[in-house]
Amino acid sequence: MQAQDTATRIRRQIEENPIILYMKGTPDNPECGFSRAVVAILKQHQKPFAFVNVLAAPHIREKLPQISNWPTYPQLFIKGELIGGCDIVQGMHADGTLKPLLDQVTE
Fold this sequence. Notes:
Layout: H1 2-16, E1 19-23, E2 25-26, E3 29-30, H2 33-44, E4 50-53, H3 58-68, E5 75-78, E6 81-84, H4 86-95, H5 98-103
Parallel strand pairs: 1-4
Antiparallel strand pairs: 1-5, 2-3, 5-6
Helix pairs in contact: 1-3, 2-4
């Protein structure tokens, strides 16, 4: 029962937040270098984003990889789609492909 509730909550979070980052820590206090790097990139683009601190939400931390088919954190979703983790976000930021995705999101 708990796993179903958690899966439903995750899907709702992804659906209701145009940009959401599942990370370790918070944007003001990232608790791993990968999360810190993704937060820094998002802040450069000056788009508001939601976040979930998976360290404070162990049920989400456990369940999200099964839903997203992505094993590690952070995980960035834009408009309901998994973008990826730190390496992918950094690569997309560097080659300019992240900005158009973020620009599609209306505040």
